[in-house]
Amino acid sequence: MSKTYEIAVTEADQGMRLDRFLAERIDGLSRSRVKALIEQGHATRDGEAVTEPAHAVRVGSTYTVSPPPPVPARPEAQAMALDILYEDRDLIVLDKPAGLVVHPAPGNADGTLVNGLLAHAGEELEGIGGEKRPGIVHRLDKDTSGIMVVAKTQVAHQTLSEAFAARDLDREYLALVWGMPSPAKDEIEAAIGRHAADRKRMAVVEPRSRGVEPRSKGHAAGASSGKHAITRYTTEQSWFGGVALLRCKLMTGRTHQIRVHLAHRGHPLVGDPVYLRRTPAASKLLPDDLRESLLAFPRQALHATTLAFKHPVTGAMLTFRSDPPKDMQELLAQLGANPR
What we know:
By secondary structure, the protein is an alpha+beta fold. The protein is about 20% helix and about 25% strand.
């Protein structure tokens, strides 16, 4: 059964917007969720329906919200092997393999991580946004492997989403790139938005705020304005000046951020099908066997190796680490690397 919330209005609340008033007093319901419930007819004032989120609350009135039971999620539950690193009643931390799409979308209607999580978590999901589904807090590209956290409850989803938005967590990636970055350790600050000519790609573009210039030069001409983005990297190892292993730390979370920033610097990821547009000149510096293996790698050589965050309910600090998957390990072994 869904819980019903009854909240009386005090003098301090007089005139407050209804959606804000209810969101501030009901734990686990975001303002956007409360707004939707109001518009859908699930809120009343002294027993009479109120469907306008901007309605000004009145002293002495009692407002009631009755969220409906969560409906079954639209994606179908599909059993699949998942590498679960940690799970409790609030969240799941897993190691996503390369090749697995996170969420159903055109062209990938099923067989996604969400489908697998629906089968794995089953009735444990309490409902997020009115649907009985896992809460995707952040995403990894289809061919990027590594650690992800997924919420099982509305409270966990909201709290974790806020932590990601506020950058109150640590995320590190291992990236194998062409060339030798100079300096070996640096911070790339450059806004990211849609590419002007290819809407499936992202690019370094002018920032949205006027008068604020990103530190990197050479923005994509004609591209739409973008969101502020910062990536910090440290070179772990390099070989022949032609390829390097970087440890990257995300200070923001933009689409394709590491791939775009490093390609913009002239060091695209090995195997990147989107941002590696031609055979890199740096490949000529490598022995033939290494050059051939690197050029044949079928996906971007990027792995989310570390994720650390505060538990959304207990506040305990959780830290997870993952070694690169077999295909990337074999490539690094051929180079003579042993990343941890």
